[in-house]
Amino acid sequence: MDPAKVIGKLKEQVRMEHKSRRNYPEVWHQISDNATNRFYHQNEIDSQLKGQLKLQASIGLLGIQTSYRKLEQSMQYVSPTFSMPGPRITAVPYNIIVIG
């Protein structure tokens, strides 16, 4: 490769790196701004949402006069075969069942 081209590429790389290092504080200064940091700070978020969460974490439990255990049991799935009268369908082998 021509030595003039190599020197030109090196000069261009040095110039671009110098420019990027010179502009680094200007570009990244916005990220360290107090308003931006406050937006992502967990304590700030919690303090703003505390009222809303308290109003919601109470609405769901206001009408419940029973214990938490009864509430938890009411949300469990109970199979319909649990309350069906008579023997279970699976108690008899299928080859004995006559369809028709």
Q: Give a short account of the largest sheet.
A: none
Task: Spell out the helices and strands N to C.
Answer: HHHH
Number of strands: 0
Radius of gyration: 36 Å
Mean pLDDT across all amino acids: 76
Total domain units: 1
- Which segments are poorly predicted (pLDDT under 50) over 5 or more consecutive residues? none
Distance between the termini: 91 Å
**Tally of alpha and pi helices:** 4
Percent range for helical residues?
55-70%
Strand content: under 5%
Secondary structural class: mainly alpha
Anisotropy-based shape: elongated
Tell me what you see in this structure.
- This protein has 100 residues and is mainly α.
- The protein has one domain.
- It is built from 4 helices and no strands.
- It has helices at residues 3-28, 34-40, 42-57, 68-74.
- The longest helix is centred in the N-terminal third of the chain and has 26 residues, at 3-28.
- The chain is elongated and about 95 Å long.
- The N and C termini lie far apart (91 Å).
- The model has no long low-confidence stretch (mean pLDDT 76).
